[in-house]
Fold this protein.
Amino acid sequence: HPYIQSVTRPRSPASAQLGRRVRSLREQQGASQSALANRADMDPTHLAKIERGQGNPTLHLLVQIATALNTPVEYLVREISAADLPDTSRPYSEEDLRRSLRADGE
């Protein structure tokens, strides 16, 4: 069923990777989702969504989670790039723009 697949499927490879890291660190520390959510000052259902790759946490929430996990926020997002974003998000760099303009002008 398409609705169920969209609810259970990660939002993107970036969201899935972030969720795996959060879950792995939480489990390594022997903390329940409820305990981590309490330490991070967030709702446990939101944490569960993030761990499943279905959440899209704000920068502030990433800092809260990282603090509660006693890890740098950089670890949570390490090696996540634009290629890991949903297909609906395609940011580009200045270099990409210049390359595209040169190709269009040829």
